[in-house]
Amino acid sequence: MMNFKQIKARYDDCLKQKYALGAFNFSTSDAAKAILLGARNVQAPFLLTTSPGEMNHLSPEIARGIADGLDKMRKGVILHLDHGKTYEDIVTAVKAGYDSLHCDGSALPHDENIKLTKKAANLAHKRNLWIEGEIGHIGGSSTLHKDETTEKIEMVMTDPDEAKDFVEKTGVNSLAVNIGNVHGIWKGGKHIDLQRLADIHAKVKVPLVLHGGSDITAEQIAKAITLGIAKINVNTELRIAYTSAVRTALKDENEFVPTKYLPAAQQAVQAVVEEKLKMFGAAGKF
Ligand SMILES: [Zn+2]
User: Fold this and answer.
1) CA of 176 to the centre of ligand 1 (A)
2) CA 25 to ligand 1 center in whole angstroms
3) Which of 71, 82, 104, 161 is catalytic?
């Protein structure tokens, strides 16, 4: 559990020492534990995150309970809502005791995004919580799109001037941007516009967030961190690691014991988490 001041200190440290926090989604307790074990193994700070779909699958209270359990294994766990798209999503997470929120009004017209995010930011700040906003629609879904390229995705890139206006009007503490970082893994990869990121960074003073962190090269990540990225979201690669390991283990049709087929999934998730945290420069920073 972390309060606003502690979370702010984390982001400030990222900007100062040039690394990014890994933000990892989970939808089961063993995946959450794998994330904590990975972060602990490489001594890195991280965020434990659920989208509304993942939060509601577990129930928000159980998601909070899992985070509290992990916090006993290593202090400083941040439970973060990922892509809260309505005010109700935000309220649900606040009521359950989330530490940090992402209000994603990016699919709305600019003015409506400002209105929703400002309302969410007011609630967050009243409760001493961190809030991330989003401008420029990232799109895609957190899974493997092996036969599709990103060309057909409706994508709105973040405009630097709009981003500045948005942060000033809403009071968000961090900002998710779209520079080609579509969610998921795609045939032909992603096209990351680092010049656009540099232009946003020159105008926006809050820490920046990169969603769709699966399948972005180490070189692009390193450059993005020098341009203000302080948090990188990873979901797809964890889902693939977890599900592939379960699928392999269940090829044995006589296997019915979860404690026998789930450890492989946990180890696979942990390995991805460790690799990402090293890539983000976060290893050794906790
Ligand atoms: Zn995202």
Assistant:
1) 8
2) 10
3) 82
Instruction: Tell me the per-residue pLDDT of 172-223, one tens digit each, with 9 for 90 and over.
Output: 999 999 998 888 888 888 888 999 999 999 999 999 999 988 888 999 999 9
The answer to whether residue 199 is catalytic is no
C-alpha 169 to ligand 1 mean position (Å): 22
Distance CA 76, CA 250 (A): 35
The whole-model pTM stands at 0.96
Percent of the chain with pLDDT over 90: 86
Element (H, E) at 6: helix 4-17
Instruction: Decide: helix, strand or coil at residue 103.
Output: strand
Spacing, Cα 248 to ligand 1 middle (Å): 28
β-sheet bridge partners, residue 100: 80, 130
Contact 207, 228 (CB under 8 A): yes
- Cα separation, 7 vs 210, whole angstroms: 17
Ligand 1 centroid, distance to 255 Cα (angstroms): 35
Residue 16 dihedral angles phi and psi, to the nearest 5°: -70, -45
Taking CB atoms within 8 Å and a gap of at least 24, the contacts of 5-9 are 6/76, 7/78, 7/99, 7/100, 7/130, 8/130, 8/173
- Non-local CB neighbours of 221 within 8 Å, separated by 6+ positions: 20, 213, 229, 232, 279, 280
Complete DSSP assignment for 29-50: HHHHHHHHHHHHHTT--EEEEE
User: Pairing mode, if any, of strands 21-25 and 100-103?
Assistant: unpaired
